[in-house]
Amino acid sequence: MAHHQRPFSYCGADLFGPMEVTVGRRHEKRYGVLFTCLTIRAVHIELVPTLTSDSFIVALRRMAARRGWPTHMYTDNGTNLRGADKELRKSIMEMDQQALADGAMNHGTKWTFIPPASPHWGGAWERLIRSVKTSLRVVLKERAPKEETLMTLLAEVENIINSRPLTHVSVEVGSTEALTPNHFLLGTSYNLPQIGTFSDEFYHRKQWRISQQLSDMFWKRWVKEVLPDMIPRRKWTKEQRPLQPGDLVYILDPDSPRNMWPRGLIEQVHPGRDGRVRVAIIKTKNGHLTRSTTRIARIPIANECC
């Protein structure tokens, strides 16, 4: 539908929060707006002070100023926010949906609110959004960073999500470079330097150090969230293809540096007593590694994804 159009032409949007920030000596609430491109699965995150139609439209305009104005928007219906914060659910239901749709239509955008009690309509973006929201909730629990620090964290989170591998498409012969959403946005998978490790943000006086520590914490949690998606578990009625020598794989380790997705080729597999592969020896550019199959995700080659 949109393979010849720019990213974010078709996108879904969701809100999450509240998140607390420190302003002077008081704490205030902030909310996040997460836009997901339905074509390349990239995300864009904006921070808003209130849950009103006006704040949402301003966030949409900020997103569109950098990503382009969307052709078709999909957003959730307040009644579908199962388990969401009561205030968040109430505010979304009180939004003037007709005003949003009419305002978008003036710019040539079709706006679709998925039907009430039908969250499966948003399945294309809901799982990705849920993993992001869950990880952020854990990282920011009982924390109230400064607003500038939170904005930096959300930008880092956006880049982490957009640097995740989608599939394996070699650009050059012999290359193990994987296709990521950032390839469509930046032309490369990742372009931020690693600036060190930070043990405990409470001892840091510099706000940029606090933001980096929170980003590292998000990375560790998010890898655990996306692990089930990268290592699919099919129903017992259908046998899953076992790992084999020659398979190109990712080694998923929450303790690895942020945005590092080590790749390698399986050289040997070691089945357990039941005949199923439990351990594999992987050849990487830094040598050989022995890993459990629970920490290995096979990369589908391009023709397997068609």
Enumerate the spans where pLDDT stays under 50 for 5 or more consecutive residues: 80-85
Helix content: 25-40%
Beta content comes to: 15-25%
Q: Which value, in Å, is the CA radius of gyration?
A: 21 Å
Assembly of the depicted chains: single chain
Largest sheet: 5 strands, mixed
Strand order of the largest sheet: 3-2-1-4-5
Total strand segments = 10
Description:
This protein is an alpha+beta fold and 306 residues long. It is built from seven helices and ten strands. Strands 3-2-1-4-5 form a five-stranded mixed sheet, sandwiched between helices. A five-stranded antiparallel sheet has the order 9-8-7-6-10, with no helix packed on it.
Labels describing this entry:
five-stranded antiparallel sheet, 306 residues, five-stranded mixed sheet, 23% strand, 10 strands, alpha+beta
Care to give the gist of this entry?
With 306 residues, the protein is α+β, with helices and mostly antiparallel strands. It is built from seven helices and ten strands. The chain has a five-stranded mixed beta sheet, with helices on both faces. A five-stranded antiparallel beta sheet has the order 9-8-7-6-10, with no helix packed on it.
Structural topology:
Layout: E1 10-23, E2 26-37, E3 43-48, H1 53-67, E4 72-75, H2 86-94, H3 97-105, E5 110-113, H4 123-140, H5 147-162, H6 181-185, H7 207-230, E6 248-251, E7 263-271, E8 277-284, E9 287-292, E10 296-298
Parallel strand pairs: 1-4, 4-5
Antiparallel strand pairs: 1-2, 2-3, 6-7, 6-10, 7-8, 8-9
